[in-house]
Specification:
The chain has 462 residues and is α/β, with parallel strands linked by helices. The chain has two domains: 245 residues, Rossmann fold; 212 residues, no CATH class. It contains 15 helices and 14 strands. The strands form four sheets. A six-stranded mixed beta sheet has the order 7-9-10-4-11-12. It has a four-stranded antiparallel beta sheet with strand order 3-2-5-6, with helices on one face.
Length: 462
């Protein structure tokens, strides 16, 4: 037996929804080995407690503390701190699945974010207990609402199942859309995980589900009433499914690249736009180009597809807008994800630049050498990659503003300026070779892109 450990502490928390304070000077502790149920009418603050505990909401005052390797530490506070400590399970009110991933893939992603690569056979056995094994390789978009809800619940339980230490599980209306058999399976799993030392905080309207809690917190108007007792001891935690430790830092990058490969979003959107740009340029027949002005025009036309591909929203923006996918990733990574673009974006930038070099006539200009061609391809690749990263960072900042304004995306117009600097640099390189002015243009171009990205990165952390 081991002593009780505090897994979550909300200390004098005040949270606003719009102009109204939904939680005011609210405090709560979740200990290892216990189940706490939140009940009350719609809008009383149950979901706000769950989302606050997950680090998804800004605090007007107070702090949220999670258990870490060195004890209870602040994960979110009123100064804007967001820090990822120990992994935790999370099931939000909306299913946090993109729809394009299979059931197995989503559960494996949840395990990897917790730092474990779960064996497929173990997950299949788990799915069997929820009558989902026969759908394991189906995309979640093909499931009914009830089956999709089961997947979201299982994804929230997997981090606890693979952990040898007590962890926190946050459930917001987990029973929504479940049939009687699934609710019974949910209760069995919750009791088993609490018995293994994990702490569970769940919000529900179902009084039968809440009845299985060790402690309950209910809202009556603006007042909260707590009942029940905290277990004094709990069993030592041990994994219930087999898994191997893994590095969670690349999980989002691998996930978004896999989703992009499946949906073909980059190819369909960015590729078509790049081809239209190239074909339009060819139709205009830019002949008669000569000298520095000619190289400047031709370099601009060649690098234009790279600019367009970088400015088009990537698969991350589209997938993360679905349901609560973006919120789930933000909670699980303390706001670090989305932090990368699909590898297909960079590949398309390279390919579109190469196609532009081959298809856009050079007029009276000399033929490009192999070295200059390689330099153009590298420049197109870097422009696409950096502009798409700025695009993603701006989307994240805009997405998580307390009161987002659509006009924020208009800042992408300023990406034309670093692109123009790169065009000038490549034109000077073709005519005069590598010199100080050329390096000033190229360094200024990519320096401006990097600086913009870093500023946006700091803003999203603030």
């Amino acid at each position: 037996m081991s002593g009780v450990k505090v897994l979550l502490s909300l200390e004098n928390v005040t949270v606003n929804r719009g102009m109204n304070a939904v939680l005011e000077d609210f405090s709560l502790r979740v200990n290892s080995g216990e189940i706490i149920g939140l009940s009350g009418e719609n809008g009383c603050g149950k979901s706000t407690v769950i989302e606050t505990a997950a680090g998804l909401l800004s605090l007007r005052q107070g702090s949220v503390k999670h258990q870490s390797d060195s004890g209870l530490q602040v994960s979110t506070d009123s100064n804007g701190m967001r820090k990822r400590l120990n992994p935790f399970g999370l099931c939000l009110q909306k299913d946090s699945t993109s729809g394009e991933e299979t059931i197995l893939e989503h559960l494996q992603t949840a395990g990897r974010l917790a730092g474990y690569d779960v064996e497929q056979d173990e997950l299949l056995d788990l799915l069997l207990s929820w009558n989902l094994k026969h759908r394991a390789h189906d995309r979640i978009a093909t499931l009914s609402g009830g089956l999709s809800r089961r997947v979201s619940i299982l994804a929230s339980l997997v981090p606890a199942m693979v952990s040898s230490e007590p962890i926190l599980i946050l459930l917001d209306e987990p029973d929504d859309g479940l049939d009687r058999t699934s609710r019974e399976a949910l209760v069995i799993h919750l009791k088993s995980l609490a018995g293994a030392g994990h702490g569970i905080l769940m919000a529900s309207h179902d009084e039968d589900l809440i009845a299985h809690s060790d402690r309950t917190i209910s809202w009556q108007g603006s007042k909260t009433i707590e009942s029940g007792e905290t277990p004094t001891t709990n069993a030592a935690s041990k994994p219930t499914i087999k898994a191997q430790p893994c590095n969670p830092t690349t999980t989002y990058r691998n996930w978004i690249s896999a989703q992009d490969a499946r949906t073909k979003t980059t190819i369909m959107n960015g590729g078509i736009a790049a081809i239209l740009v190239i074909l339009t340029t060819m139709a205009l027949d830019p002949t008669g180009m000569a000298g520095v002005d000619g190289w400047r025009l031709w370099s601009g036309l060649v690098l234009l597809p790279a600019l367009v591909v970088g400015l088009i929203p990537g698969p991350g923006q589209r997938l993360l807008e679905r349901n609560a996918v973006g919120a789930w990733w933000a909670a699980q990574t303390a706001g670090r994800a989305p932090d990368s673009v699909s590898i297909h974006v960079a590949v398309l930038g390279l390919v579109s630049t190469w196609m532009a070099v081959l298809m856009i006539p050079t007029g009276e200009l000399a033929e490009t050498s192999t070295i200059h061609l390689a330099q153009l391809l590298l420049c197109g690749l870097l422009l696409t990659l950096m502009i798409s990263r700025v695009n993603l960072a701006l989307w994240v900042v805009h997405r998580w503003l307390p009161r987002p304004k659509q006009g924020a995306q208009m800042l992408l117009v300023f990406m034309v300026f670093p692109w123009l600097l790169a065009v000038e640099g490549m034109a000077l390189l073709a005519v005069e070779g590598a010199n100080e002015e050329m390096w000033t243009m190229l360094i200024g171009s990519f320096g401006l892109l990097i600086s913009t990205y870093l500023i946006l990165h700091l803003v999203r952390r603030a």
